[in-house]
Design a protein that fits this description.
Largest sheet: 6 strands, mixed
Number of strands: 8
CATH architecture of the largest domain: 2-Layer Sandwich
Number of helices: 9
Structural class: alpha/beta
Radius of gyration: 40 Å
Number of domains: 3
CATH topology of the largest domain: Nucleotidyltransferase, domain 5
Strand order of the largest sheet: 3-8-7-4-5-6
Strand content: 5-15%
């Protein structure tokens, strides 16, 4: 509900009480500016002679003002105190006539951007040394203010629009590797599906290569399967590994292969197929 700060018909505290009881579920929104709301509050306080009211009656009037103006209780307390002390209400805050002076001008920001462009945007402490050397060693008075800048504020100047409009730093897109398998020690935690695979070479005879036996054992249930491959190559290993995977009655969560160390390969969550290691 929008109000226009006109309550001349409410002249008694009983009417104020009835107003609050009848609008308990109504939310008021004032379209008046700050000065109009101040005049409204001052008029209500004078009309009902606020200083001469009892404590309960003052609380009733405070609730009425809070409902109609949208001010919080601390704000109303401050305004009522001001009205009692000065006999009226007025805005006691305004923008300062002279704001804070900028220590570093746009020319300083552009000069910093020039230094960063020449030296490749070095770290803050290193850049601070370059600015000091430009003034004290080479006598360049353009750096009179920048030579005393703090490292933290130097980074602040680099974030300004005036700096970015002069100095733009481009970096190449860094590719993100997508891991098919993650090498880490197996942690079954009582779950089946973490398989240990070992390969055993049968040996050579008369210059002929022997067979390779693949032994797959589940770390928790000790479910064991054996397969044989003629060669250690993709053409021979894939059918053997496929038969091993189909033989386990549970989902394969990871492989543990000796491979010279105690490591394992766990399929990445984003990978739909399992990975193996010889």
């Amino acid at each position: 509900m929008v109000i226009d700060m006109n309550d001349a018909s409410l002249t008694t505290l009983a009417q104020i009480r009835e107003f609050l009881a009848g609008t308990a579920d109504v939310v008021f929104t004032s379209t008046a500016d700050e000065a109009a709301r101040y005049r409204f509050i001052a008029g209500v306080l004078r009309r009902f002679d606020y200083p001469g009211l009892a404590r309960s009656e003052k609380g009733l009037l405070r609730r009425y003002l809070a409902r109609t103006t949208g001010y919080s209780r601390p704000q109303l307390t401050r305004l009522i105190r001001q009205h009692r002390q000065y006999g009226g209400l007025s805005q006691r805050y305004a923008a300062p006539t002279a704001g804070f002076r900028r220590r570093y001008s746009d020319e300083d920001v552009a000069l910093l951007a020039e230094v960063d462009s020449l030296h490749g945007t070095l770290s803050g402490p290193t850049t601070r040394v370059l600015l000091e050397r430009a003034l004290h060693l080479y006598g360049d008075e353009r750096f009179a203010r920048l030579a005393t800048i703090s490292v933290s504020h130097l980074y602040n100047l680099r974030q300004l629009t005036a700096y970015r409009s002069v100095r733009r730093h481009w970096t190449k897109t860094r590719p993100t590797p997508v891991r098919i398998g993650l090498r880490k020690p197996p942690r079954p935690e009582g779950r089946p599906g973490f398989i240990r695979i070992d390969s055993v070479h049968q040996g050579d005879q008369d210059g002929c290569k022997g067979l390779y036996h693949l032994d797959a054992v589940d770390c928790v249930t000790q479910w064991q399967l054996l397969a044989t491959a003629e060669r250690i190559s993709e053409a021979y290993l894939l059918p053997a590994l496929q038969s091993l995977l189909e033989g386990f009655p549970f989902q394969i969560l990871g492989f543990h292969a000796d491979n010279g160390s105690s490591t394992s390969i766990t399929p990445s969550p984003s990978c739909s197929t399992s990975s193996t290691s010889n």
